[in-house]
Amino acid sequence: MTEKIVVKDLYKVFGERPDQAMQMINDGIDKDEIFDRTGQTVGVCGANFTVHEGEIFVVMGLSGSGKSTLVRLLNRLIEPTSGQVLYDGVDIAAMSDEELRALRRRDMAMVFQSFALMPHLSVIDNASFGLELAGIDEAERHKRALTALDQVGLKAHANSYPDELSGGMQQRVGLARALANDPAVMLMDEAFSALDPLIRTEMQDELLTLQREHKRTIIFISHDLDEAMRIGDRIAIMEGGIVVQVGSPEEILNSPANDYVKSFFRGVDVSTILSAKDIASKRQVTVIEREGVGLKTALNRLRNEDREYGYIVGDKLDFHGIISVDTLDEAIKSGADKLSAAFLPNVEPVSHDTQLSELIGTVAHAPCGVPVVGEDGKYMGVIKKANLLATLDREGDGTNG
Amino acid sequence: MFPEQLNVPLGKWVNQFVDWLVINYGAAFEAFADSLLTVLVALEQVLRGAPWWLVLIAIAAITWHASRNWKLVLGLVVAMFVIGTLGLWDKAMQTLALMIVATSLSVIIGVPVGIAMAMSNRLRAIMLPILDTMQTMPSFVYLIPALMLFGLGKVPAILATVIYAAPPVIRLTDLGIRLVDPEVLEASRSFGASRKQILFGVQLPLALPNIMAGINQTTMMSISMVVIASMIGARGLGEQVLMGIQRLDVGAGMEAGIAIVLLAVVFDRIGQAYGKRSQRTSSGEDA
After folding, report:
1. Binary contact (B283, A187; C-beta < 8 A)
2. Fold of B13-283
3. pTM of the prediction?
């Protein structure tokens, strides 16, 4: 994966004498004390992360955590105090005004929480706003703006004015305005937070659809974990100006860096975020089916391990079937010699990317733990009722702790 | 008694300064006055030379353009017609010319100053007391030096009017630009707008309703200056009022007063109609 944006040691201090505050940061003084002593606010403190090309990178945090500041440092709507923002290897923090304007017109578009449309311009003129700034003639920019409006389903409203549209539609115009420039990077600052939940979900889906077609690099600011989990390929969590953790939704959910990160998961429905592979355990008895391994060998192993069920795999760990003490006994009595004669008939393996919410029925009805297989049919472990329940119960953990 | 030793001879200093201005820069002031006078005289000749019905048609056309409201058009044409029936048409045209020049000059100076004030808090801090002074200082105080610099007549009248009438358009331009939604400005910047593009493409169009309100106020205030202007030799309706006072001719004064009010009403309605129009376009109900 190509590195599209690399943020290195990025700091932003709001106040009269940022150099003084930077000195204090270097001396290891924390931001609350800096504020008490100098009245200056550390907005972003030593951010380091990389955004890959074509991914949706969500920056999440509570209000005041510096996420909106961070995104504005990326296109320099706010001047960084120190550090680098590398866009395709070029440092944005060191660009001239001219280069910066060119970058904003060509490569980076932004969508705002409050939509920030021009009230005096029609929808099509709003959508072509960026193109107009870039000096593209009217016929061409209207053509491109119409294409963008078409992508967000607003072509029919091209001649309306923003105040005639609903909030959701206004934000579609905001989205079209960003898309019209065909930017490589889109910065979305709480873009859907002002919309009601239904419209928000609809807009998220739309964004994901657009993303499937165009594979833009999107940096999405959000305070809503469900939103972050839903659309984010990777998530950065910010607390008090510091990026505390960067990782995939599963990574963050499974191993939160601290209590702050953990606190986000209160009330989050893990069953829609985790998939089968995340909770599959490999502590079951597996028997490799090969020459010389017969029914009796398998039965012995199960008895030695004191297990009821065993999982049969091939020599490449490809999943074959499930055996139990009872079926083995029966097969031996009936005089069969192949392991497959003892396979449990009704248990099918589930795919590794099945969401937990879809698994509940299968796991509940299966007599034994349900095996999980990868795309190539490879055995990845087993989900038992107990560990599924324990995972789903994590929500409860969050609220108690 | 306040000790006399502490008296500051400010008056003397001002006198010396004005004398110095007259002696050293008199010629420059005269050249400026002449060019202003040329414009004013030309406009006055056009207005006074044009047949009365043509002026009425022009007023009707402008009102229609501003409001698309035929009742208003009719009302304003009747108002102008009444001025004519009072026998004050010619003087009204003189006043009209004076007002148009004074208002235009106020706007030409006021809008850029207002923009500059909106851009710089420091300039704003300096300008606000100056604007207060311009609006509250009795006009006679600056009429005297203006007379000394420009002589008796129309030019000092215009300048006095501009000093009195420019503050509203300056204040409202400043206010209008400052009221533009900061998020909209941020969005413009995020799409790579230069300062010039932001000013002309976003700030001024969005501030337009306020600027129009300012221009309307400026027009009204410049009308209210006509009587004072007539005291230093500007002709027109104010002169008639002044004459009424001097001769204790209540009727003549009343006639001229009514004519001034009617002229003010005409200007105010046209100005308001344009203001509403700009508001409509900026809020998007009118394509």
Report:
1. no
2. MetI-like fold (1.10.3720)
3. 0.74
